[in-house]
Design brief:
The protein is mainly α and about 200 residues long. It has 8 helices and 4 strands, in the order H-H-H-H-H-H-E-H-E-H-E-E.
């Protein structure tokens, strides 16, 4: 016991033990979800306390979908429940283009076809008015490929209205390179992702 005495009294050892114990407590609290509520409440406070409205650009406008939007009688009557019809987004993109928006970002992933006939085509038409709309996407590293040529052709026809040409110099291969010191993404001169 006397051999451990100097080690226990060492400030460095005390700091390491205290740091490890604190880390274990915080990690455990996070894994149990105890910090989620604290994070959400403190995030609201941090945005209110540290935001400098005077520094915000007047060129940026955010059109947000919130709880009031979801519960609005007018929205329910015209566009139904969430997920809303693509007709709404088509009108919104067209309206923003008419008002002179330089860039429009839509942070919603549109999965599958809209159940209302013609809404996808209307949305694709609005997206095609100008090349200033950026849509969200979900990336996955799946190796699935449709092998049935008939199904692949049908899928290609459905996606054709939403196809946007990619500039050749902007195409990226999203597979990580294993070359030390190299760029994380492989650029391809063909405009297609490298395989």
């Amino acid at each position: 016991m006397s051999a451990l005495g100097p080690w226990i009294k060492s400030k460095w050892v005390q700091a390491v033990v205290l740091g490890l114990a604190s880390g274990v407590v915080v990690f455990g609290a996070d894994r149990l979800g105890w910090l989620d509520t604290v994070e959400r409440k403190s995030l609201d406070w941090r945005f209110r306390a540290f935001t400098e409205p005077g520094r915000a650009s007047r060129d940026i406008v955010i059109v947000a979908l919130d709880d009031t939007s979801f519960g609005s009688r007018e929205m329910l009557d015209n566009f139904g429940r969430w997920p809303w019809r693509r007709k709404l987004y088509a009108g919104l993109v067209h309206y923003l283009n008419e008002c002179g928006a330089r860039t429009i970002g839509v942070d919603i992933v549109f999965q599958g076809a809209d159940p209302h006939a013609g809404d996808d085509a209307l949305f694709a038409e609005a997206l095609g008015e100008r090349r200033n709309v950026v849509l969200a996407c979900a990336l996955n590293m799946s190796t699935y490929r449709e092998m049935d040529p008939t199904t692949q052709e049908k899928l290609g026809k459905k996606l054709a209205p939403l196809t946007v040409p990619v500039r050749q110099e902007a195409a990226l291969d999203l597979r990580p390179r294993h070359t030390p010191g190299a760029s994380r993404f492989n650029r391809t001169p063909t405009g297609r992702c490298a395989r």
